[in-house]
Amino acid sequence: MIALIVLVALTLAGLSMVRSVDTGSTIAGNFAFRQAALSAADSGVEAAFGVLNGAAGNGLVQSAPDNQVANKYYPVMQATDANGIPTGITWSSAYTLSDVPAGVTAVTVPAGYDVRFVIERMCTGAFPVTDVATKCVNERTTDASGGSVGIGRPRFTGATKTNYRVTVRVEGPRNTMSVAQAIVAF
């Protein structure tokens, strides 16, 4: 009788061990899919860079920085949710990796991952933006000739490059979704 009770206890312990190992494997697999989706987001940032800059200077920045393209490009920043992701975007209509201009090397992603991105010029106010120097977030150049806020600090002089926020959304296997943002300047 005691041997049967011990045998039942050992069987239950073995079953719980199998279940624990199975759960650990599932978690590790899901984590791997999530990491692959996050890595694929880099390709979206590279593609957005290609769309903004273009080959031979014929990108969005040079050709039409004030032309809004719904769900793809916005010349002013859009409203965001609590996580900083633009709201009101129909992701099925957003840029894809196939929208990269000719002459720009497209980055490939593993099969099963859908990479989409939206570009926003980091400007505030009403559209159209008439004063890019004061209404947009700009990179500034330094002037080493003198004057600064602190000793040894560079003095900022003029706006040279406008910043753009790229939001990339990647959907992958097992309902994996990853969102990443990057700031690029032109």
Task: Chart the SSEs and their pairings.
Layout: H1 2-53, H2 60-63, E1 73-74, E2 95-96, E3 114-121, H3 132-135, E4 138-143, E5 155-172, E6 176-185
Parallel strand pairs: 1-3
Antiparallel strand pairs: 2-3, 3-5, 4-5, 5-6
How would you describe what is shown here?
With 186 residues, the chain is α+β, with helices and mostly antiparallel strands. The protein has one domain. The chain contains 3 helices and 6 strands, in the order H-H-E-E-E-H-E-E-E. The protein has helices at residues 2-53, 60-63, 132-135; strands at residues 73-74, 95-96, 114-121, 138-143, 155-172, 176-185. Strands 1, 2, 3, 4, 5 and 6 form a 6-stranded mixed β-sheet that branches. A hairpin with a 3-residue loop joins strand 5 and strand 6 (176-185). It is elongated. The N and C termini lie far apart (80 Å). The model has no long low-confidence stretch (mean pLDDT 80).
Descriptive keywords:
186 residues, alpha+beta, six-stranded mixed sheet, 3 helices, 6 strands
**β-sheet strand percentage:** 15-25%
The unreliable regions are none
What's the number of extended β-strand segments? 6
Helical/strand content category: alpha+beta
Distance between the termini: 80 Å
Helix content bin = 25-40%
Major sheet description = 6 strands, mixed
Integer-rounded radius of gyration: 25 Å
- The H/E string reads HHEEEHEEE
Give me the number of helical elements.
3
Tell me the count of domains: 1
Describe the global form: elongated
Provide the residue-averaged pLDDT: 80
